[in-house]
Amino acid sequence: MATPSSDDVFFGSIGEVSAKLRAREFSAVELTRAYCDRLERLGPRFNALALSLREQAIRKARDVDDDLKRDRTRGPLQGIPYGAKDLLAVKGHPTTWGARPYAGQVFDEDARVIELLDKAGAILIGKLAMVELAGGGGYRFPAASLTGPGLNPWDRTRWSGGSSSGSGAATAAGLVGFALGSETSGSILGPSSMCGVTGLRPTYGLVSRRGAMALSWTLDKIGPLCRTAEDCALVLETISGADSQDPGSAGRSFRYAPQYARKPQEVTVGYAPVDFDQSADPSARAGFQAALAVVKWMGMKMKEVEIPDFPYGALVNTVINAEAASIFEDLIRSGRVDQLADKRQVANLKAAVEIPATEYLRAMRIRTRVQEAFRNLFLDVDMLLTPTRPAPAPKITEPLTGVGGIFTAPGSRGLTGLIPAGNLAGLPALSLPCGFAGGMPVALSLVGRPFYENQLIAIGRTFQSQTDWHRRRPPVG
Amino acid sequence: MDVTRRKLATMIAAAAAANTAAAQAPPAADEDARAAHEALQGNAQQLAKVPLPMATEPAFRFKP
């Protein structure tokens, strides 16, 4: 039996690694040990590792090997090592939420998504680093984390994104087979784009958040960061589903059925040329335009659109700030909030306690109009296409120009603001690596109507069959 | 060291000016608090500009 030491394994898709496990090229224990070695050796280099779970992972891998010997198959995730953002509870181990005030916190139950992945035979090998409190309140510097700034595997002087910093970096560096992250407004899509991995933000309510840190009850979502669109489908299929213990649960599940998706020629894509040109960082324009050419070549019908006109940044910040101030009221009023690393974030959380109810309600009423506007937009197009972020990852020393990964919009509207808008409307999004700018990855996003994941993934899979950006590997050694 | 009355007066005045400046400069925490409140005010001002029919209810029971 071979030892899984080659990069082809560490950077393989779930399907590829699963096939090797079933062909007995290596055992689940060997694979898990090799991944744990790699995660423990390289994870700290990117400030990506919050906690190694080697011992329980090896025990789980032994169970998987027993199952495989007896032909008890549990699906494609069986035996695949993965990492989870440190806001997901794992029974009996610290769950820090990336923040010093919660450094000693231990839960006695697994988060629902961890339970579901465990049943499917996936092997949790580590908790992954994150921005403190998932960026709640809004942070000024990438260093806003218990584990320091998330460093990008493509260039350690640059940020891996937030708030799922470790999930992005660990997936990009081949330290895990896939990772779970969470998004309130940009925390899956941002790190996916900056690290060059494929990330899926599910429709609000499709994945249970039981056992996950709450930042905003009406915005929080959990989703996968993977190597391919198809991997995202396999993970989403496992973690989605109704949960009576999550009040936000939509009571629906996801089944990956690419055979039922419409062909690219039957799909109308809304886009704004300005997003690929003037609104993009000059270093990224050539990459975005080449990627757009691939999309057009796929045969999809292209229609120029503009994002409905709302102050998305102000809206999403008001909703997050008001809900986070309520969720973390004890932390704030007790003064323990002062232990957070980012002093602007501390000040923002303290100030957020004073947001009047009328302002929160106004934001939530405008949000109703946002949802209506997107319902109307999706009468004309099937999905929206735009650069996930207009620029590659910033230097870790640069202050962030927006809050929680939301960056200042340029003058021309196009689809600028689609990350907060899509979150406010609860829409699914798939981020696909689409090129490089100055040696750093950039990405496109496909955004659809609620519960449109199957179609987004099918188009993403076709795009990835025509490109190899998702297969590129950072020089991590 | 010889200190003339004029030099002494200059030194005292300079020290007093430095103390006054230090007292007037806001500590970093105050600066962060001010920025935080300004950001909230900015959000509120932007939201106030959005026309909102009276019948529009908040997205409380939020279902996409």
Biggest sheet strand line-up of chain A? 1-3-2-6-8-7-12-13-11-9-10
The count of strands of chain A amounts to 13
Give average pLDDT of chain B, whole number.
76
Largest interface: A-B, 42 and 26 residues
Main sheet characteristics of chain B: none
Could you describe the 3D structure shown?
Chain A is of the alpha/beta class and 477 residues long. Helix content of chain A is 36%, strand content 14%. In chain A, the strands form 2 sheets. An 11-stranded mixed sheet of chain A has the order 1-3-2-6-8-7-12-13-11-9-10, sandwiched between helices. In chain A, strand 9, helix 9 and strand 10 (301-304) form a beta-alpha-beta unit. Chain A is globular and about 60 Å long. Chain A starts with 6 loop residues before the first helix and ends in an 11-residue tail after the last helix. Chain B is mainly α and 64 residues long. Chain B has 2 helices and no strands. Chain B starts with a helix and ends in a 16-residue tail after the last helix. Chains A and B meet through helix 10, helix 12 and helix 13 of A and helix 2 of B.
Q: How are the SSEs placed, and which strands pair?
A:
The complex is a heterodimer of chains A (477) and B (64).
Chain A: H1 7-10, H2 14-22, H3 28-42, E1 49-52, H4 54-69, E2 81-85, H5 112-119, E3 123-128, E4 151-152, E5 155-159, H6 165-172, E6 178-183, H7 189-195, E7 198-201, E8 221-226, H8 229-239, E9 268-271, H9 282-297, E10 301-304, H10 312-327, H11 329-334, H12 343-352, H13 357-380, E11 383-387, H14 418-424, E12 429-437, E13 440-448, H15 453-466
Parallel strand pairs in A: 2-3, 2-6, 9-10, 9-11
Antiparallel strand pairs in A: 1-3, 4-5, 6-8, 7-8, 7-12, 11-13, 12-13
Helix pairs in contact in A: 3-4, 6-7, 8-15, 10-12, 10-13, 10-14
Chain B: H1 5-24, H2 28-48
